[in-house]
Amino acid sequence: MEKGAGSPSVGGSYPQKNAEILSSQYGINLFLAGLLLTFAWAVHAVGISKSHLLSYLITLMLIQLLWMLWYLCRSCMQRRLIRDKDTHAGARWLKCGITLFAVITLILDSFKIGYYVDFSNCLSPTEGIFPVTHAVHTILQVYFLWCHAKDIIQSFKTLERFGVIHSVFTNLLLWTNGVLTESKHQLNEHKERLITLGFGNITIVLDDHAPQCNCTTTTLCSIFSQGIYYLYPFNIEYHILASTMLYVLWKNIGRKVEHHQQHKTPFKFHGITVGMIFGLIVLTSTIAIVVVYLIQIGRSKIKSELALTMFYLHAIFVLALMCTAGIVALLIYRLEDRSLDNSKNPARKLDAELLVGTAAGSWLLSWGSILAIICAQAHPKYTWYNLPYSVLVIIEKYIQNLFIIESIHREQEKVNDDIKTLRIVTISRGSTLSLTPSYKEIYNGRAACDNGEVPCLFKGSICGRENDGGGGAKEETGQDKSSVMHSASDLSFYSRNSVTNNKRRILKNIAAFLFLCNLSLWIPPAFGCRPEYDNGLEEIVFGFEPWIIVVNLAMPFSIFYRMHSAASLFEVNCKT
């Protein structure tokens, strides 16, 4: 269908480059059309209903399903062919993570089906078709990513580019739909809290998309309607992870890779006890803070202020610990002399770009809070805790991004031949004798001579003398000096190795601690604990609607940043 990927001609690269540009433009237009439709539904545009948006999303999912089935069938027919693989893409832990989110997404779809059944008298049929289609789409997509996330496609490249980019933007639109639905629910809850607290200077109108009929089973309807919004954070993470994995697959189409051995880096709990303990303490305390916050906020003005103060103090403490841990890790890197791996790697490049890009969301919110504190005329006591919190959010992300990006670009430590095999050289009657026990044997003191009793490392002259047959006194003296010299150099090597192991252990504990801290900081905004909504200061300075728009645009990126950082830190822990 196309020229071979290995064609040296310059002209042969143009069709593929054009296919890449055309497919990317197709995907962007697909996304913009869906984004505009989503926005029109959100603002209650005339002539646009939820059924129109869902019909568009169903059509996109069906097209993707057809493409995935085509790809799976073609792969099954060519399963005996040897395919190139990108060993850096689609790590097993990433696949396990997306599978977990997919399972919870399937539960969400079942809740939506139950909700539709209970309100079937006044809901559009598309609201029942959508969760069924989405469930099938989720199952097949997870299977596809498990089997083919590492593929480097070299045939039907133009067609596959359009199929993969269609899948990328379909998942992005599903992510956008989830983010908007969840944000509207959070906004309604926030408005209800403002009504409770008696904010009369803010125009409050609830954005109600509830069905205009009674539920057939009240208890089930309440469970489904409330449960749906608690499951949305997992659905949102599922779609953004799927889109990133598919994007790497798209970037790998037609790519030429060097065939080299990839070292497996499994995750091990050994040596990270300290980091895990501190991280679990942070995780447990964060869950407790979130529960108390959600119970207390909006009950009364005093309880709301206490909840905000509690949240800020806890977050300041956690962020300060994370900054300290990140600085220690960067200082250790400065003390090491290890080169960076600058080879072409789409997965690693995307990780770095997502870290910096999504961090901009929380940076925007933090700078908005800082500006509000500076410009506000009245400052309730709890708002002053917002200042160090916002500053630490900016600094912590800056330090953590440096640590993660440098960690994923550092070359894995390679064992030198001189380390693998220590050569003990003795001189015997003018000839050189090289004894080469393994490093592990030498380190454990088990490398012995022929009788298996005397370690050659510290008694190298003995081995030499046995083979020597009884040399002169001068030879024995020379061998003794050589043995002393080798013993000193070996002890120096062991000392350096011990220092390296200690540094590595500290880095692994730091990565484990930051991993759990990022999971902890993902929980509050994902489940409705959002002080940017509730402290009221920014809304007074910027206005209610402008600030709410900023929060709704920036918060999804801030939430994704924490989950993506946790995934990247897991990889760092495996590599260290």
From TrEMBL:
<feature type="transmembrane region" description="Helical">
    <location>
        <begin position="540"/>
        <end position="561"/>
    </location>
</feature>
<dbReference type="GO" id="GO:0015252">
    <property type="term" value="F:proton channel activity"/>
</dbReference>
<dbReference type="GO" id="GO:0005886">
    <property type="term" value="C:plasma membrane"/>
</dbReference>
<keyword id="KW-0812">Transmembrane</keyword>
<dbReference type="InterPro" id="IPR004878">
    <property type="entry name" value="Otopetrin"/>
</dbReference>
<feature type="transmembrane region" description="Helical">
    <location>
        <begin position="53"/>
        <end position="72"/>
    </location>
</feature>
<feature type="transmembrane region" description="Helical">
    <location>
        <begin position="354"/>
        <end position="379"/>
    </location>
</feature>
<feature type="transmembrane region" description="Helical">
    <location>
        <begin position="26"/>
        <end position="47"/>
    </location>
</feature>
<feature type="transmembrane region" description="Helical">
    <location>
        <begin position="506"/>
        <end position="528"/>
    </location>
</feature>
<feature type="transmembrane region" description="Helical">
    <location>
        <begin position="129"/>
        <end position="146"/>
    </location>
</feature>
<feature type="transmembrane region" description="Helical">
    <location>
        <begin position="93"/>
        <end position="117"/>
    </location>
</feature>
<protein>
    <submittedName>
        <fullName>OTOP1 protein</fullName>
    </submittedName>
</protein>
<keyword id="KW-0407">Ion channel</keyword>
<feature type="transmembrane region" description="Helical">
    <location>
        <begin position="271"/>
        <end position="295"/>
    </location>
</feature>
<keyword id="KW-0813">Transport</keyword>
<keyword id="KW-0472">Membrane</keyword>
<feature type="transmembrane region" description="Helical">
    <location>
        <begin position="229"/>
        <end position="250"/>
    </location>
</feature>
<dbReference type="GO" id="GO:0042472">
    <property type="term" value="P:inner ear morphogenesis"/>
</dbReference>
<keyword id="KW-1003">Cell membrane</keyword>
<dbReference type="Pfam" id="PF03189">
    <property type="entry name" value="Otopetrin"/>
</dbReference>
<feature type="transmembrane region" description="Helical">
    <location>
        <begin position="311"/>
        <end position="333"/>
    </location>
</feature>
<keyword id="KW-1133">Transmembrane helix</keyword>
<keyword id="KW-0375">Hydrogen ion transport</keyword>
<keyword id="KW-0406">Ion transport</keyword>
<comment type="similarity">
    <text>Belongs to the otopetrin family.</text>
</comment>
